[in-house]
Amino acid sequence: MDENSIKYLDRASGEIITETVMGDRALRFAYNTLLGRSLWAVLFGGKAVSALMGRYYDSPASRKDIAKLAAIPGCCPDEAEYPMEHYESFNSFFARRLKSGARPVDNDEKVLTSPADGKIIVHTGLKPDDPIPVKGAKRSMNELCKSSALSDSLAVAVIRLAPVDYHRYHFPCDCRMADDVQIVPGKYHSVNPVALLRRPDLFVENTRHIALLESPVFGEFRMIEVAAFGVGSIIQSIGAGDFAKADEKGYFKFGGSTVVLVFDNEKIRFDNDLLEASANGMEVLVRYGSRIAVAR
Prior knowledge:
Elements: E1 7-10, E2 16-18, H1 24-32, H2 34-38, H3 40-44, H4 48-58, H5 66-70, H6 90-94, E3 111-113, E4 118-126, H7 141-145, E5 154-161, E6 168-170, E7 175-177, E8 182-184, H8 193-198, H9 202-205, E9 208-215, E10 219-226, E11 234-236, E12 241-243, E13 248-252, E14 257-264, E15 268-270, H10 272-279, E16 283-286, E17 291-295
Parallel strand pairs: 1-16
Antiparallel strand pairs: 1-2, 3-17, 4-5, 4-16, 5-14, 6-13, 7-9, 7-12, 8-9, 9-10, 10-14, 11-13, 15-17
Protein backbone atom coordinates (compact mmCIF):
# COMPACT_ATOMS: atom_id res chain seq x y z
CA MET A 1 0.00 0.00 0.00
CA ASP A 2 1.19 3.54 -0.79
CA GLU A 3 1.52 5.19 2.62
CA ASN A 4 0.44 8.51 1.09
CA SER A 5 -2.91 7.26 -0.21
CA ILE A 6 -5.43 4.47 0.25
CA LYS A 7 -7.02 3.19 -2.93
CA TYR A 8 -9.93 0.81 -3.40
CA LEU A 9 -12.03 -0.59 -6.23
CA ASP A 10 -15.64 0.60 -6.40
CA ARG A 11 -17.48 -2.58 -7.34
CA ALA A 12 -20.48 -0.72 -8.76
CA SER A 13 -18.57 1.58 -11.11
CA GLY A 14 -15.38 -0.43 -11.66
CA GLU A 15 -13.32 2.69 -10.84
CA ILE A 16 -10.27 2.79 -8.59
CA ILE A 17 -10.83 5.54 -6.03
CA THR A 18 -8.54 7.30 -3.56
CA GLU A 19 -10.16 7.19 -0.15
CA THR A 20 -10.84 10.43 1.73
CA VAL A 21 -9.88 9.64 5.32
CA MET A 22 -11.56 11.51 8.16
CA GLY A 23 -8.82 12.66 10.54
CA ASP A 24 -6.07 11.66 8.10
CA ARG A 25 -3.39 13.97 9.54
CA ALA A 26 -4.00 12.79 13.11
CA LEU A 27 -3.98 9.14 11.96
CA ARG A 28 -0.66 9.51 10.18
CA PHE A 29 0.82 11.40 13.11
CA ALA A 30 -0.21 8.60 15.49
CA TYR A 31 1.18 5.76 13.37
CA ASN A 32 3.92 7.27 11.18
CA THR A 33 5.86 9.39 13.69
CA LEU A 34 7.99 8.40 16.65
CA LEU A 35 6.16 10.85 18.93
CA GLY A 36 2.77 9.51 17.84
CA ARG A 37 3.80 5.90 18.46
CA SER A 38 5.07 6.85 21.91
CA LEU A 39 1.46 7.80 22.77
CA TRP A 40 -0.08 4.45 21.79
CA ALA A 41 -0.57 3.28 25.38
CA VAL A 42 -2.60 6.41 26.14
CA LEU A 43 -4.54 6.63 22.87
CA PHE A 44 -5.18 2.98 22.08
CA GLY A 45 -4.26 0.95 25.17
CA GLY A 46 -7.77 0.99 26.63
CA LYS A 47 -11.26 2.36 26.23
CA ALA A 48 -10.78 5.67 28.09
CA VAL A 49 -10.01 8.00 25.17
CA SER A 50 -12.55 6.34 22.85
CA ALA A 51 -15.18 6.46 25.63
CA LEU A 52 -14.59 10.19 26.14
CA MET A 53 -15.00 10.74 22.42
CA GLY A 54 -18.14 8.61 22.51
CA ARG A 55 -19.68 10.72 25.27
CA TYR A 56 -19.05 13.87 23.27
CA TYR A 57 -20.49 12.38 20.08
CA ASP A 58 -23.58 11.26 22.01
CA SER A 59 -24.18 14.82 23.21
CA PRO A 60 -26.22 17.56 21.49
CA ALA A 61 -23.02 19.63 21.24
CA SER A 62 -21.75 17.19 18.59
CA ARG A 63 -24.68 17.89 16.27
CA LYS A 64 -22.64 20.53 14.43
CA ASP A 65 -20.20 17.82 13.31
CA ILE A 66 -22.84 15.95 11.29
CA ALA A 67 -22.45 18.31 8.32
CA LYS A 68 -18.67 17.75 8.28
CA LEU A 69 -19.12 13.99 7.99
CA ALA A 70 -21.93 14.31 5.45
CA ALA A 71 -19.68 16.42 3.21
CA ILE A 72 -17.01 13.70 2.89
CA PRO A 73 -17.30 11.76 -0.41
CA GLY A 74 -19.08 8.44 0.10
CA CYS A 75 -21.24 9.44 3.07
CA CYS A 76 -24.55 9.62 1.10
CA PRO A 77 -26.78 11.35 3.71
CA ASP A 78 -29.67 11.22 1.22
CA GLU A 79 -29.91 7.46 1.93
CA ALA A 80 -30.58 8.05 5.64
CA GLU A 81 -33.95 7.14 7.12
CA TYR A 82 -34.52 10.79 8.12
CA PRO A 83 -33.25 14.22 6.97
CA MET A 84 -30.00 15.36 8.62
CA GLU A 85 -31.78 17.91 10.83
CA HIS A 86 -33.71 15.08 12.51
CA TYR A 87 -30.60 13.71 14.25
CA GLU A 88 -29.93 15.15 17.72
CA SER A 89 -26.27 14.10 18.03
CA PHE A 90 -23.40 13.04 15.81
CA ASN A 91 -23.72 9.41 16.91
CA SER A 92 -27.44 9.31 16.18
CA PHE A 93 -26.58 10.22 12.57
CA PHE A 94 -23.47 8.03 12.49
CA ALA A 95 -25.51 4.94 13.48
CA ARG A 96 -28.44 5.96 11.25
CA ARG A 97 -30.75 3.44 9.62
CA LEU A 98 -31.35 3.65 5.88
CA LYS A 99 -34.47 4.38 3.88
CA SER A 100 -36.51 1.34 2.93
CA GLY A 101 -35.13 -0.15 -0.28
CA ALA A 102 -31.78 1.68 -0.11
CA ARG A 103 -29.96 -1.68 -0.06
CA PRO A 104 -31.51 -4.38 -2.26
CA VAL A 105 -30.78 -7.80 -0.76
CA ASP A 106 -29.95 -10.88 -2.84
CA ASN A 107 -32.40 -13.35 -1.28
CA ASP A 108 -31.15 -16.51 -3.04
CA GLU A 109 -30.56 -18.92 -0.14
CA LYS A 110 -27.34 -20.17 -1.75
CA VAL A 111 -25.92 -16.63 -1.91
CA LEU A 112 -23.88 -15.18 0.95
CA THR A 113 -24.34 -11.41 1.19
CA SER A 114 -22.14 -8.70 2.65
CA PRO A 115 -23.06 -8.00 6.27
CA ALA A 116 -22.10 -4.33 5.98
CA ASP A 117 -21.15 -1.46 3.73
CA GLY A 118 -17.38 -1.26 3.49
CA LYS A 119 -14.19 -2.25 1.74
CA ILE A 120 -13.81 -6.01 1.55
CA ILE A 121 -10.81 -8.26 1.11
CA VAL A 122 -11.15 -12.06 1.06
CA HIS A 123 -8.81 -14.96 1.81
CA THR A 124 -9.12 -18.69 1.12
CA GLY A 125 -7.35 -21.83 2.27
CA LEU A 126 -6.13 -20.38 5.58
CA LYS A 127 -5.07 -22.83 8.28
CA PRO A 128 -6.25 -22.29 11.87
CA ASP A 129 -2.67 -21.76 13.05
CA ASP A 130 -1.82 -19.41 10.16
CA PRO A 131 -1.29 -15.76 11.09
CA ILE A 132 -4.29 -13.51 10.46
CA PRO A 133 -4.12 -12.47 6.78
CA VAL A 134 -2.26 -9.17 7.22
CA LYS A 135 1.35 -8.73 6.11
CA GLY A 136 3.64 -8.97 9.13
CA ALA A 137 1.01 -10.47 11.47
CA LYS A 138 2.07 -13.17 13.92
CA ARG A 139 -1.20 -13.92 15.77
CA SER A 140 -3.23 -16.84 14.44
CA MET A 141 -6.78 -17.31 13.18
CA ASN A 142 -7.46 -19.45 16.26
CA GLU A 143 -6.43 -16.49 18.43
CA LEU A 144 -8.69 -14.18 16.44
CA CYS A 145 -11.64 -16.56 16.94
CA LYS A 146 -10.68 -17.02 20.63
CA SER A 147 -11.10 -20.79 20.24
CA SER A 148 -10.37 -23.56 17.79
CA ALA A 149 -11.28 -22.46 14.27
CA LEU A 150 -13.99 -24.20 12.30
CA SER A 151 -11.96 -26.48 10.03
CA ASP A 152 -8.49 -27.19 8.70
CA SER A 153 -9.11 -24.81 5.80
CA LEU A 154 -10.79 -21.43 6.29
CA ALA A 155 -12.41 -18.84 4.03
CA VAL A 156 -12.27 -15.36 5.54
CA ALA A 157 -13.84 -12.03 4.55
CA VAL A 158 -12.70 -8.80 6.19
CA ILE A 159 -15.04 -5.81 5.70
CA ARG A 160 -13.58 -2.46 6.83
CA LEU A 161 -16.05 0.30 7.61
CA ALA A 162 -14.79 3.87 7.24
CA PRO A 163 -16.47 6.72 9.16
CA VAL A 164 -18.44 7.73 6.03
CA ASP A 165 -20.07 4.30 5.74
CA TYR A 166 -23.44 3.11 7.00
CA HIS A 167 -22.51 1.61 10.38
CA ARG A 168 -25.13 -1.05 11.06
CA TYR A 169 -24.26 -4.68 10.32
CA HIS A 170 -26.53 -7.55 9.33
CA PHE A 171 -26.65 -11.34 9.09
CA PRO A 172 -25.20 -12.54 5.74
CA CYS A 173 -27.54 -15.57 5.50
CA ASP A 174 -30.34 -17.32 7.36
CA CYS A 175 -28.77 -18.64 10.55
CA ARG A 176 -29.14 -19.49 14.22
CA MET A 177 -27.16 -18.04 17.11
CA ALA A 178 -27.42 -20.46 20.04
CA ASP A 179 -25.59 -18.25 22.55
CA ASP A 180 -25.06 -14.54 23.08
CA VAL A 181 -21.92 -12.99 21.59
CA GLN A 182 -18.60 -13.46 23.37
CA ILE A 183 -17.03 -10.10 24.29
CA VAL A 184 -13.23 -10.07 24.24
CA PRO A 185 -11.80 -6.90 25.84
CA GLY A 186 -8.71 -5.35 24.35
CA LYS A 187 -7.20 -2.27 22.76
CA TYR A 188 -8.70 0.36 20.45
CA HIS A 189 -6.26 0.80 17.58
CA SER A 190 -7.49 2.30 14.33
CA VAL A 191 -8.38 -0.35 11.71
CA ASN A 192 -7.28 1.88 8.81
CA PRO A 193 -4.64 0.36 6.49
CA VAL A 194 -2.18 3.00 7.73
CA ALA A 195 -2.51 1.48 11.22
CA LEU A 196 -2.27 -2.10 9.92
CA LEU A 197 1.14 -1.34 8.42
CA ARG A 198 2.42 -0.47 11.90
CA ARG A 199 0.29 -2.85 13.98
CA PRO A 200 -0.54 -5.90 11.83
CA ASP A 201 -1.95 -7.94 14.75
CA LEU A 202 -4.48 -5.29 15.75
CA PHE A 203 -7.53 -7.45 14.86
CA VAL A 204 -6.46 -9.86 17.61
CA GLU A 205 -5.35 -7.11 20.00
CA ASN A 206 -8.46 -4.92 19.74
CA THR A 207 -11.72 -5.38 21.65
CA ARG A 208 -14.04 -7.61 19.63
CA HIS A 209 -17.39 -9.40 19.75
CA ILE A 210 -17.54 -13.01 18.48
CA ALA A 211 -20.69 -14.87 17.48
CA LEU A 212 -20.80 -18.57 16.60
CA LEU A 213 -23.57 -19.07 14.01
CA GLU A 214 -25.10 -22.06 12.25
CA SER A 215 -26.48 -21.84 8.72
CA PRO A 216 -28.49 -24.64 7.04
CA VAL A 217 -26.67 -23.81 3.78
CA PHE A 218 -23.20 -22.56 4.78
CA GLY A 219 -22.66 -24.59 7.94
CA GLU A 220 -21.09 -23.27 11.12
CA PHE A 221 -19.34 -19.90 10.87
CA ARG A 222 -18.14 -17.02 13.00
CA MET A 223 -19.05 -13.35 12.70
CA ILE A 224 -16.66 -11.01 14.51
CA GLU A 225 -17.08 -7.27 15.08
CA VAL A 226 -13.81 -5.48 15.86
CA ALA A 227 -13.74 -2.20 17.77
CA ALA A 228 -11.46 0.65 16.73
CA PHE A 229 -10.23 4.03 17.91
CA GLY A 230 -13.22 6.24 18.61
CA VAL A 231 -15.62 3.29 18.80
CA GLY A 232 -16.85 3.79 22.34
CA SER A 233 -19.44 1.06 21.84
CA ILE A 234 -20.33 -1.97 19.75
CA ILE A 235 -24.06 -2.40 20.20
CA GLN A 236 -25.65 -5.82 19.65
CA SER A 237 -29.29 -5.35 18.66
CA ILE A 238 -30.21 -8.97 19.37
CA GLY A 239 -29.56 -11.96 21.60
CA ALA A 240 -29.56 -15.67 20.82
CA GLY A 241 -32.17 -16.88 18.34
CA ASP A 242 -33.03 -17.58 14.70
CA PHE A 243 -32.43 -14.87 12.11
CA ALA A 244 -33.13 -14.25 8.44
CA LYS A 245 -30.60 -12.94 5.95
CA ALA A 246 -30.23 -9.13 6.29
CA ASP A 247 -31.77 -8.97 9.77
CA GLU A 248 -29.92 -6.31 11.76
CA LYS A 249 -27.36 -7.77 14.15
CA GLY A 250 -26.03 -4.53 15.63
CA TYR A 251 -24.20 -1.27 15.02
CA PHE A 252 -21.04 0.67 15.80
CA LYS A 253 -20.94 4.11 17.33
CA PHE A 254 -18.37 6.63 16.08
CA GLY A 255 -15.14 5.41 14.48
CA GLY A 256 -13.95 3.12 11.75
CA SER A 257 -14.69 -0.52 12.43
CA THR A 258 -14.42 -4.02 10.95
CA VAL A 259 -16.60 -7.09 10.49
CA VAL A 260 -14.84 -10.44 9.93
CA LEU A 261 -16.58 -13.58 8.60
CA VAL A 262 -14.86 -16.96 9.09
CA PHE A 263 -16.21 -20.00 7.19
CA ASP A 264 -15.17 -23.53 6.37
CA ASN A 265 -13.43 -23.16 3.01
CA GLU A 266 -15.34 -26.18 1.68
CA LYS A 267 -18.70 -24.47 2.26
CA ILE A 268 -18.37 -21.26 0.23
CA ARG A 269 -16.77 -19.80 -2.86
CA PHE A 270 -16.11 -16.07 -2.97
CA ASP A 271 -17.02 -14.21 -6.16
CA ASN A 272 -14.26 -14.10 -8.77
CA ASP A 273 -13.93 -10.30 -8.84
CA LEU A 274 -13.32 -10.25 -5.09
CA LEU A 275 -10.78 -13.07 -5.33
CA GLU A 276 -8.91 -11.32 -8.15
CA ALA A 277 -8.83 -7.95 -6.40
CA SER A 278 -7.79 -9.50 -3.09
CA ALA A 279 -4.96 -11.41 -4.78
CA ASN A 280 -3.64 -8.01 -5.86
CA GLY A 281 -4.06 -6.52 -2.39
CA MET A 282 -6.95 -4.29 -3.48
CA GLU A 283 -9.97 -3.71 -1.26
CA VAL A 284 -13.37 -3.61 -2.99
CA LEU A 285 -16.23 -1.35 -1.91
CA VAL A 286 -19.37 -3.46 -1.38
CA ARG A 287 -22.81 -2.72 0.04
CA TYR A 288 -24.66 -4.72 2.64
CA GLY A 289 -27.11 -7.18 1.07
CA SER A 290 -25.02 -7.63 -2.10
CA ARG A 291 -23.60 -11.00 -3.09
CA ILE A 292 -20.04 -11.80 -2.03
CA ALA A 293 -20.02 -15.64 -2.23
CA VAL A 294 -22.07 -18.71 -3.08
CA ALA A 295 -22.49 -22.11 -1.46
CA ARG A 296 -20.28 -24.86 -2.86
